[in-house]
Structure formats: structure tokens, C-alpha cells
Amino acid sequence: MNGNKEHHYLGVGTMFGFGKKKSQATTISDTKPQRFGIRARFDAAQNSTDNAKHWAMADPFSPDLAASPQVRATLRNRARYEVANNSYAKGMVLTLANDCVGTGPRLQMLLPDDAANKVIEQMFKDWADEISLAAKLRTARMARVVDGETFCIKTYNPMLRSPIKLDLKLVEAEQVTTPWEKQSITSPNQADGIEFDAFGNRLLYYILKQHPYSASQFYDAGYDIVAAQNVMHLYRVDRAGQNRGIPEITPALPLFAQLRRY
Per the domain annotation, does 97 fall within a domain? Predict the structure, then answer.
């Protein structure tokens, strides 16, 4: 019995290296860590002959440089052409605008005075109808898809019958650009047609008096400087620091072109 216990204890000691001879004892210095090569990787980050052409146009440009005035002009022109000639694209854009705007916004006042509520609601409806608010909003929504952006300027219109003389004027993207004498390639507080303060707040917009591709024989090359508080810039921000919009339909343009040829 004692022999069994002794054998048992010896076995446990041997297991942990206590019963081994000095020459057999395992020391930390004898063990060498096994080194493994790093195999973790992203497949999309690998370069090969198969994907070289696919990623050839990838670039590290900033959002404003990637969407430069020249790039935006090309995308706008192609998007307008495609929507004008592709019934599928046109139908999608119209459906989106109609579903988004519908018959236009309306007020629902919740004042304690029901009579006052009706008067205010009717005044808003009359004003919205007179300035064609719903139609302008539909046009603005379509422009965001096709042009990438639109600008809505709050203006004073004394010719309105409504006591509310506020009117909204839509301006296409081409008309908002920095005049050459105001351009500064070293200023970080300037985007195409937009000026910012030191904190990134929009200060003003440069808006051409006429469309740069106007059919008028007497083109006015002048521009207006409009305070940012009077301009609503409608576009989708896809990247941090993006100051101008690109057509929402951009990724589908090659597909729509193929569809029209089918």
C-alpha cells in the first residue's frame, strides 16, 4: 500500500518535472517559442493580373477633388441625357419625386382657436399654390437625382397677391461657381461657389446671374453674392467634407445605357 502511494506521488512529481534528473529537467531556457507567419489579409487589398483593370481607377482623392467641377459637369450631362432618353430612368425619377413630394406640404395648426387654425392653414395653402411650391419641390427632388444637387434661394417677390412675399427660386448647379477673380487655390475655406468661415460654417454663395450655357444672345457674366442663410443647398453627403453633390443616379448610368441599347 505504501509502495503504491510512493509510486503515485512519484508519478505526479515526474509529471511536473520534480522527479526528473537534472539532465532531464525541462527549463524555460530550453523551450523556444514557435513563430508563425502572419496569414491574415483582405482579399480586396491584393494585387493580381485578374483585378488590375478592375481597380485601375481607384484613387485617394478628397471628396471635393474627386467631385471636381469638371467631373460633376460630365456626370450631370450624362445623367440628364440618359434620363431624357431612357423611359425606365425617367419613370423612376418621376416616381421618386412624386412619392416624396406628393401634392405638396400643408400646415396643420394646433392652436386652441380653431378659427385661427383654419385662417392660417388657408393662408399657407394660398401662398404655396401661388408660388407653385409643390412643383418646385418636385423639380428640386428630381435635380438631386439627376444633377446631384440643386439650390433654392429665398427671395422677396412684391408681385405676389399673398401678404406673404416670400418666394423660392431654383438655381441649377452650373450657376453656383466661384468667379475667377475670387478663386484661391490656397484657401481651405472655399469650395466651388461656396465660402466658409474658420469654423466651417457657410457664409455665402456665388451665383451667376445667368446660366453659363444660356441661349440668350446678350449673356450677363455677372454674379450675385448671396448670404448662406438665404440659400438652401439640397444634396446628399456621401463623404465627410463633401461640399458639392454628384448625381444620385451615377452608379446606374452604365447600366441604363446598356438597357437603352437592348
Answer: yes
